[in-house]
Specification:
ELMO_dom, 13 helices, ELMO_domain-containing, ELMO domain-containing protein 1, GTPase activator activity, mainly alpha, single chain, elongated
Length: 303
């Protein structure tokens, strides 16, 4: 244990000495080198984030958790602390601001998603009920729901005659994602639902949607989704970005389920875990954008 501690501090001191030497040789601090040598997107933002968090300066360490409204002032503080003249390096401030917007936005997105996850479905809340009924109308537009409490809910993959009991694990987040998928990717959502009802593929659409919500939530909280969001969101990633990612994961899981050709629903956990590992592997690539059609990399080029 003592040897490990000594090795840690030795490496830390060595790294700081190396940074000092490189700055003297190049005339640029680490933040400048990252912004000038790494193209916009996840690779740059994650390096900036690591540099700020690993700084010996408390002001730099806390810059990754400031309020969005304070980012502009934070950039000025960073430039002053690093003795960088903004008139000579105007592009650096723009680049740092774009990175900080993504970093702070990701933290705020986790908080927003967590709030939805913790809010239970309330059948006495008109807004909750309205969203639930919208889900039915989007998925089954030609089949009117005969009653709020009905076995019809099983047709879209709920376990019983009242869906509210199925939202316990993911709270309102599960419902938000399902409604977004059904409303904005209606054709795909209806096709996935139709396929899920076939004996060959048989699984519960809504229950799987809530389960994939859990998968997306864990990817977000673990930081694995930073690669994707930092590549597709030119500024702060939002709840919409998260929901678009859910749509992608839902569709991809459906295709993966068909490819795996499981014997029955009892193999769900095995297939889900394999799918999870596949997504994690993809996200290790700093160039990865899970939903290319949502990518905004082009708008990052000049940042």
């Amino acid at each position: 244990m003592f040897v490990q501690v000594c090795l840690y501090f030795y490496c830390k001191c060595l790294w700081r000495c190396l940074k000092f030497v490189v700055r003297k040789l190049t005339g640029r601090c680490e933040l400048q080198r990252i912004c000038y040598n790494t193209k916009p997107g996840a690779a740059r933002t994650m390096k900036i984030e690591a540099s700020l968090k690993g700084s010996k300066s408390k002001r730099l360490q806390t810059s990754v958790s400031v309020h969005p409204d304070a980012i502009e002032k934070t950039i000025d503080d960073i430039m002053e602390l690093k003795r960088i003249n903004p008139d000579i390096n105007p592009q650096l401030g723009v680049s740092l601001q774009a990175c900080l917007l993504q970093i702070v936005g990701y933290r705020n997105l986790i908080a927003e998603v967590e709030k939805l996850r913790r809010e239970p479905y309330d059948s006495e809340n008109p807004k909750h009920e309205e969203m639930l009924l919208k889900l039915w109308k989007c998925l089954k537009p030609n089949s009117p729901l005969k009653a709020r409490i009905s076995k019809q809910w099983c047709e879209i993959g709920f376990q019983g005659d009242d869906p509210k009991t199925d939202f316990r694990g993911m709270g309102l987040l599960g419902l938000y994602n399902l409604v977004y998928f059904a409303e904005w990717d209606t054709e795909i959502a209806q096709q996935v639902l139709s396929d899920s009802l076939q004996p060959k593929y048989s699984y519960s659409f809504a229950i799987v949607g809530i389960n994939i919500t859990d998968l997306a939530y864990n990817l977000l909280v673990s930081g694995a989704l930073k690669t994707h969001f930092y590549n597709v969101a030119p500024e702060a990633p939002t709840l919409t970005h998260f929901q678009q990612t859910f749509c992608y994961l839902m569709h991809e899981f459906h295709k993966f389920w068909i490819e795996e050709d499981p014997l029955d629903i009892m193999e769900f956990n095995r297939v889900r875990e394999k799918f999870h590992k596949r997504i994690l592997k993809q996200l290790q690539n700093p160039e990865m954008a899970l939903c290319p059609h949502f990518a905004a990399s082009e708008s990052l080029i000049n940042m």
